[in-house]
Amino acid sequence: MAPTVTVVNHTYQVPDPLPTAEPGTLIAATDHGPDARLENARRWTVLYHSTNARGAHVAVSGTVLLPSGSASQGGWPVVSWAHGTTGVADGCAPSQSANLGSEAFAQELRALLRAGYAVTASDYPGLGTPGPHTYLVGADEGNAVADIVTAARQLVPGLAPVWFAVGHSQGGQAALFATHTERRTTGQRLGAAVAVAPASHLEAMLAGVKASHVPSELSFAFYSLVGLSATDPGGPATDLRSLLGPSAAAAASRVIADCVTHSSPVLKGVNTERMLPLKGDQLRRMGERMGAYGDPDRSAITVPTLVIQGGADQDVPPAWTDEVVARLRRLGSPSLVYRAYPGAGHDQVLGQSVCDLLAFLHSHGGTRPGACTPPPSSHG
């Protein structure tokens, strides 16, 4: 029996030093019982073993949800949900939130639970656990999305052998990286992946935010600097004060310490060029590093994959996702489907696409969906 999960100041407590164990080995679990906010699914908070992009062993936190009622013959198929950006501070870990990070996410999870899927939801490395969150480091996220499925099988007997990677934004990128983790899940089959508005073009992020003159976009730039510093210790992003200067570094630190909001008062009216006083060569070198570890379109995907994009998305430009899909197809991704939803914003597309998502999962070994009507969705 795994010990219960303990948390101090929003950080889950993990063994120190962390013993070596196979990825997906359960470390601790707390049973919260049925959750009325999530279709009365039985909810656990878990800690489990994973590995990061450098091959180091890390502890990762997350959530496991089991639908109420009885599973169909063969057990509950599993959807490993990969969340969008919530922030980089430990208190932003979705497992610590009633709605797992946002109401748009909870709405998607409720639809999956109603359809008869068990859901695993990783927080990703460093989000809720010691150390910085490796924001947009694709291998870290993809490994964590796969390994929590293995951990859930130690907690919940009778899960079906098929699982699916489904994610939004940061999580859309994570779901695409999870397609390269098949060998991690022995005895389990990754049936398909769904990436909704996947993060991409990381090499252009810092320069794009600097030139955007949209202060709210600075949050993503600052989070990406945290990810860069976490995967490149001692590199240029490690010391924000040296990199950005005292004033911008102070603002960045305040943003980094908070969770995602639609409008951060710290950033109201600020000048994006002054907040990112980086020269062209710095932007290029840092962008190249981010693209190398985070762009999801640098190797072919052999798992059946559905990419979803809202036509009015202002956070992940539709043109970027068009290019990701085109590049993946050129690289030789034989089972890639692309669906766009004109007029849908970044979060809004989750609700608009959910019926198509459920139909796609069913066509690759998931549950048979009943009558489905897209629910009202959050705007943006």
Automatic annotation (TrEMBL):
Stretches assigned to the Serine aminopeptidase S33 domain: 103-347
Superkingdom per UniProt: Bacteria
Pfam families the record matches: Hydrolase_4
SUPFAM superfamilies documented for this protein: alpha/beta-Hydrolases
Biological processes per GO annotation: lipid catabolic process
Membrane spanning stretches: none
Example GO molecular function: triacylglycerol lipase activity
PANTHER family reported in the protein's UniProt record: LIPASE 5 (PTHR34853:SF1), PTHR34853
The protein, known as: Serine aminopeptidase S33 domain-containing protein
